[in-house]
Amino acid sequence: MAAADLVQRILLIGPPGSGKGTQALRLSQKYQIGHVSTGDILRRNTQKGTALGREAQQFITSGDLVPDRLIFDMLEDLYKRADGEHQGFILDGFPRSENQAEALSEFLESRGQRVSAVLLLELADDEIVERLVHRRTCSRCGRSYHLKSSPPTSEGVCDGDGTSLVWREDDHEDVIRHRLQTYHGQTEPVVAFYGKRGVLHRIDACQSIESVTLELSAIMDRLAHASRGDSH
Ligand code: AMP
Hints:
Elements: E1 9-13, H1 20-31, E2 34-37, H2 38-48, H3 51-62, H4 68-83, E3 89-92, H5 98-109, E4 117-122, H6 125-133, E5 135-138, E6 144-146, E7 165-166, H7 173-196, E8 200-204, H8 209-231
Parallel strand pairs: 1-3, 1-4, 2-3, 4-8
Antiparallel strand pairs: 5-6, 5-7
Helix pairs in contact: 1-8, 2-3, 4-5, 6-7
Bound molecules: adenosine monophosphate.
C-alpha cells in the first residue's frame, strides 16, 4: 500500500451539543491533522456579512440545514483548508445529509481517496438540551463553555483570548428542539450510509470530555496501526 494510504480522513458526526467541535479540536492538535467545521465557516460568513453568510443566516437561526447547493460550493475550499498542508483531516459537522455524503464520496474517489473512519458521538436528546441551553461560545475562537459544569474563569469572557462569550441564537430551547428534529430526519441516514460501508464507530458522548477523547484516540491509534500493518 502506498504511503498516501496511511493518511487519516476522519468524519466526526453527532447531534448538536454532542461535543464534535471540542473533540475535533483536541484530535486535530493531538494528531497534527487539519480540522474544518462547516458550522464555524458559515458563522464566520454571517458575521462578515458575505453573500454566503447572508443566504445561510435564516437557516442557521431557525435550526434548519443550509441548502446542499451552498455546501457543495464550499467543498473544494473545505477540502483545501482541511487537507492542504496536513495530509489528513477531521471534518466536523459535514456531511449532514445523504446527498452530502454521496457528494463527498464522489469528490474523494475522483482523487483516489476515501473516508478512513466515521466517529459518531451519541447522546440522548434531553442531555443535549441541558448542555446547549447552558452553552456559551467564544465568537472569535469558537471555544465553548457550560455555565454550570465548565464555566470560564472570568464571567462572560473566553479564557483563551478574552473575547466576550455569546449565547448562540440557535442554542435557545425552541431552536435546539428543531435542530434535533433536523438531525434525526436528515443526518441520521448518513449514519446508516457509513454503517453499510463498514467505517462507522459509535462513541458514548455522555462521558467526560477527557474520556471521550481517550476513546476517540484509541480508535485513531488502531486505525493508524492497521494501515501501517497493511502497508508492509
Ligand atoms: P453547527 O455549528 O455544526 O451546529 O452548525 C450550525 C448550523 O450551521 C446548523 O444548524 C446548520 O444550519 C448549518 N450547517 C452546518 N454544517 C452544515 C452542513 N454540512 N449542511 C447544512 N447545514 C450546515
